[in-house]
Amino acid sequence: MHKVAIIQEAPYVLDKIRTIKKAAELINSVAAQGAKLIVFPEAFIPGYPAWIWRLRPGGDWTTNEELHVRLLKNSVDLSSDDLKPMLAAAKNNDVTVVCGINERDNLNSQATIFNSVITINGQGQIINNHRKLMPTNPERMVWGMGDGHGLNVLDTPVGKIGSLICWESYMPLARYALYAQGLEIYIAPTYDSGEAWIGTMQHIAREGKCWVLSCGVALERKDLPKDFPKLDELYPIDEEWINPGGSLIVSPSGEIISGPLSKEKGYLIADIDVELAASSKRALDVAGHYARPDVFTLQVDKSRQSSTYFKHNS
What we know:
By secondary structure, the protein is of the alpha/beta class. The chain has one domain: Carbon-nitrogen hydrolase (Nitrilase/N-carbamoyl-D-aminoacid amidohydrolase), CATH 3.60.110. The protein is built from seven helices and 13 strands. The strands form two sheets. Strands 6, 7, 8, 9, 10, 11 and 12 form a seven-stranded mixed β-sheet that branches. The protein has a six-stranded mixed β-sheet with strand order 5-4-3-2-1-13, covered by helices on one side. Strand 3 (about 95-105) and strand 4 form a beta hairpin. The longest helix has 16 residues, at about 15-30. The mean pLDDT is about 95.
């Protein structure tokens, strides 16, 4: 049995320094309760850009521009020491951490933001960075498109883990790319919630015969900074919740064992039997004995995509 924790707390929206410090404190807190795998929500640092669902993507130019500039300045540059407090917390507690971030590309133009999920090991090292393959609808006005470079299943002390972000869970080929690498724990940081999303998480657990950890964004109006532009217009004062969270843990049989945690801040902590992910595949193993490679095959390009390749003369 291994103890896992899903963090459903709000960040300091548009403030990466305070949010990273808060994340480190939360790691220390749940690690002290025995958690060895700790999961944070989608785009936790410095917050999911929820305003895109209320501002017109092609209009409200001034407000969109102001918010984007603040988001860009507070996005994480993985070539810097931005995440040093979180890396230290993971190392000091010998835990694996999965966290959604707004990532500022440090190559190419250095001005594109990606919706990324990083994995930190017990030595305080970033061992995987997956960028969301396809931002959804107005998200495309904020984030660039990712690639297959981070579509990896990682062998950790808790089990073999892999991550897809929000509606990537509706991409069957992306899911299969993880199943085919021996996935035991499917991690889904997400902004989505509700009955339809819960059903999707249960389906994935049954389909992949894996544990599913869905970590939702819990965001209240009071979590937005006081100088947030057009605050009262976008989020009326009588509107408390912007997004309810809805985090949950699902077993390989599709049974919900913890959650959903809705309209509430906090965390879910549960013991999971990772070996069930293998034994449950006796009847159905979609990437093994239930596959038909003579009929279907999947090709995955894991190279990091770039618009420019420089060739230097020796």
